[in-house]
Each structure stands twice: as C-alpha cells, then as structure tokens.
Write a structure and sequence with these properties.
Complement Module, domain 1; mainly beta; about 250 residues; 5-stranded antiparallel sheet; 4 domains; 21 strands
C-alpha cells in the first residue's frame, strides 16, 4: 500500500537542481512486516546557452524562435536561430544568421561599422602590413577613414610582397569602399631586416617578426646521445644568438 509521497527541491554545491522522490511502502500490519522504503535520485540537466557579446553596438538582434528582439549581452538556448541587422548608416560585417549549438555559436558573431567611413580594420588588424593614411596631402590616423583618403601600404618588417602586381596605394571611394582589395604580405623565411644600431651589452628590444626562427642547441654526451642545453635565434646563415650562460 502506498502510504505517502514526499517531494523536496534542493541545491547542491554546484547549483544543479535535484528532484528527490521518496516512496515509503508499508507492509500488512497483521503480518507485522517492517516498513520498507525506496528512493530515487534524478538529476535535471543544465541547459546550455550562447551569449551575445555585450559590447555590440548599432546592431538589431532578433530571436527567430520567438520572433522578438533581444539585447546585446543576452543569452539564448541551444537550437535558437538568431539574426543580426544594423541600424541605419551602418553595415554588417559577417553572417547575418547564427545558430546556437551545444558547442557555442556556429559562426563568428558579426559587428556593425559605420558606412560613413572605409573599413580601417583591414589596415590595422593585419600584422603583415603597415599603412600610412593621407587626406588632402596631410597625414591622418588610419581610423575613421573618409572618402578620398589615400592609404599607402608597405610590408611589415620580416615580410615581403607576394607578387609585383600587389597594390600598394589604395583610395577610399565615395561608396565607403577601398578601390582595390588589400592583399597581405608573405613572410621572408630566414631573412632579417638589417639595422645600423650597434648591439648593446644587454641586447635591444625587437619585434617577434624580426627574428621568428629558432634552433635547439645540443651537447653531445657521446657518439650517440645528445643533451638539449639551450635555444637560439637565427640572425644569419652562419650566426645563431643564444645566452652566454649556455656555454660558460
């Protein structure tokens, strides 16, 4: 005979919700059987969600599952279809439709940038190039790039042009687009930029792209065995720079 059912909700240390159901079964009192009880522990799974970056601006975000607009910084459940659009005067960079999966967004979250300027990120985000911007023959920052701004492209230290036809002078058009695509430079393998600055006793700071090639230095213990003692940087075909304590 079912005597009672008690239901209790509680939180454990990981904030998972557990539903504990106790079923107490009492035997026939005439047979003087002891009371028997059973219990079941059921763990409710935690719902996975995807978060929309809180720093998105000038963007309109729609939860297509519920056909409602949501704010930046909000979270949505898995299998939710979300669309992104921009406020007037802004243009979307990226895919307009994303799906929340168990592993997060299926694509990179897009951003909106102003249509009143050419995209400056293509000049600043690529480490293989450097750019100088000119507006009406005067140097300006390569940030909010107005139409008729000229960008002079050079390869960064340790890089070279992929081909001789690579465009090095670009112009921001009245449609807020560059007149040519910006082509990244390719790395110069094994070749370093030459400097006239003399070597200092304690060294001089350099960019990582100026000496990106590394070697391992080993000491031969016998004819067959070697021991790794240090690393070094290649600066020419015959010169490797390492620390003095590796050898003295």
């Amino acid at each position: 005979m079912l005597d009672f059912i008690a239901v209790d909700f509680s939180f454990n240390r990981h904030w998972n919700i557990y539903l504990i159901v106790f079923l107490a079964l009492i035997g026939d009192s005439h047979l003087s059987k002891p009371m028997r009880s059973t219990s079941a522990l059921i763990a409710l799974p935690i719902e996975k969600k995807c978060q929309i970056p809180a720093n998105l601006s000038n963007v309109i975000i729609t939860n297509n599952n519920f056909r409602t607009n949501i704010d930046a910084g909000s979270s949505v459940s898995t299998n939710t279809l979300v669309t992104f659009a921009c406020q007037p005067g802004y243009q979307l960079d990226g895919d307009e439709t994303l799906v929340c999966t168990d592993d997060g967004w299926d694509k990179k979250v897009p951003v909106c940038y102003s249509r009143n300027y050419c995209d400056a990120r293509v000049l600043n985000d690529d480490k293989s190039i450097t750019a100088i911007c000119l507006f009406e023959s005067a140097a300006v920052a390569c940030e909010k790039i107005k139409p008729n701004t000229i960008a002079v492209i050079k390869c960064a230290i340790g890089y070279q042009q992929k081909n001789v036809r690579q465009k090095t002078i670009l112009s921001c058009t009245n449609e807020y687009k560059w007149n040519y695509p910006i082509t990244p430079c390719e790395i110069k393998c094994g070749e370093l930029q030459q400097y006239s600055t003399p070597f200092a006793r304690n060294g001089i700071p350099i960019e990582i792209s100026e000496a990106p090639w590394h070697v391992g230095i080993y000491s031969n213990l016998n004819e067959r065995d070697f021991k790794h003692i240090c690393g070094g940087s290649i600066v020419s075909y015959r010169v490797v720079v390492s620390a003095a304590h590796c050898f003295y």
